[in-house]
Design goal:
- A 4-stranded antiparallel sheet has the order 1-2-3-4, with no helix packed on it. The protein has a 4-stranded antiparallel sheet with strand order 5-6-7-8, with no helix packed on it.
- It has 4 helices and 8 strands.
- About 10% of the residues have low confidence.
- Helix 1 runs parallel beside helix 3 and helix 2 packs antiparallel against helix 3.
- A hairpin with a 5-residue loop joins strand 5 and strand 6.
- It folds into 2 domains: about 230 residues, no CATH class; about 100 residues.
- By secondary structure, the chain is of the alpha+beta class.
- This is Autophagy-related protein 16 domain-containing protein.
Length: about 375
């Protein structure tokens, strides 16, 4: 009875060990299946992410091309200001930012792939250690059975059964190793695809660098043309300014008084006055004028002044030459030069005749050009 109890106890232990081994095998198979599914999902996600990143890079390249075309029009205005603020050109700044973004993105993807590979290797190593522990347990069990063979001959069938189970487990282990090899092959393929993607990224970067260099050369040409046009514009402005100075000198000479006329000279002596607004607001009494607007000075320092209520005299502060311009048939109230200093408006009391209220004199030609009504 004791031997039978021992045999039953051993059988019970064998069944428990076999059940535990079966559970561990099923768990290992489930874990491997889950890992395989997770790895496939990660591979698909990585491929989708890589395709998405490639598409975004292509969109960025096209966007940069459009922006470069627009920036060519604004480059001439923004280049100096941007260079003064950043101490570098706009193209250098853009290329540095784009290179940093691409390099950081590539580096992050490489680090993520390496981390995932390390995790998979660690999990495979843990599974191998568990399989090794199971093999050690089976070897110890074989030693125990062989030691008890002399006393328990009936346990040989059970031992044979266990050997069959061990062979099955070995077959499963070989299958797991085959799956592991397949996973390694897929990992190798993913690494190859990753290397091809890196090569494509390098090619795209080289194309971008070439296009950027072409754009920089074009911008340099445009800048040179801009400098040439700027020089031509400055020369044209100088010619225009010279012509304007010549015209001003001609107008200035033409509006200067021609000289005193013996029969038309006034009895007063004109003295130089500063060209100020307050001068025009003074009440002028050059032989008689009851209006505070009885004189005005033009841009050529020629003063028009009323004398004896009816006569208008021109006086140059530069040459101190006096000239009688005209004598009106009405009392003069005001004199006004135009901005260019070549037209003089004479206004006075109409005395019932509105056609003779205001006269506009062309001073260079010494004639009346307009008669204005009020």
């Amino acid at each position: 009875m004791t031997d039978n109890n021992k045999i039953q106890a051993l059988k019970h232990k064998i069944e428990e060990v076999e059940a535990e081994a079966t559970v561990e095998r099923s768990r290992a198979a489930m874990r491997l299946e889950e890992l395989k599914q997770l790895y496939e999902e990660k591979i698909l996600k990585e491929r989708e992410l890589l395709e998405k990143n490639l598409g975004s890079l292509e969109e960025e390249c096209s966007y940069l091309k459009r922006e470069n075309k627009l920036l060519q029009q604004r480059h001439t205005l923004l280049l100096d200001a941007f260079k003064n603020v950043r101490n570098e050109t706009f193209e250098e700044y853009i290329s540095i930012v784009a290179n940093k973004a691409a390099q950081s993105q590539i580096k992050a993807i490489c680090e993520e792939a390496e981390a995932r590979a390390k995790v998979l290797q660690k999990q495979c190593k843990e599974l191998q250690e568990k399989n090794a522990s199971l093999e050690e347990i089976m070897i110890a069990f074989k030693d125990t059975v062989s030691a008890k063979q002399e006393e328990i001959g009936d346990l040989e069938d059970c031992v044979n059964t266990l050997n069959v189970d061990i062979k099955k487990s070995s077959t499963k282990i070989r299958n797991l190793e085959a799956e592991k090899d397949e996973i390694s092959k897929e990992l190798k393929k993913s690494k190859e695809s990753w290397s091809s993607y890196k090569n494509e990224v390098k090619k795209a970067q080289s194309r971008y660098d070439n296009e950027t260099e072409d754009l920089i050369n074009k911008l340099d040409d445009l800048e040179q043309k801009h400098k040439e046009l700027k020089g031509d514009l400055e020369k044209a402005k100088e010619r225009e300014a010279a012509q304007q100075r010549i015209m001003q000198e001609r107008v200035s000479r033409s509006v200067q008084p021609h000289g005193n006329q013996e029969e038309g000279s006034s009895s007063v002596v004109f003295s130089p006055l500063p060209l100020m607004e307050s001068v025009q607001k003074l009440r002028v009494k050059a032989g008689g004028c009851g209006s505070r607007y009885g004189l005005d000075i033009n841009s050529h320092n020629v003063m028009a002044v009323v004398h004896d209520y009816y006569s208008v005299y021109l006086y140059s502060e530069e040459t101190t030459v006096e000239e009688k311009l005209c004598t009106c048939s009405y009392v003069i109230n005001c004199l006004v030069w135009n901005k260019e200093g070549d037209l003089l408006a004479i206004g006075g009391r109409h005395n019932g005749n509105t056609n003779k209220t205001i006269k506009v004199w062309d001073i260079p030609n010494r004639k009346v050009t307009k008669r204005l009504k009020i």
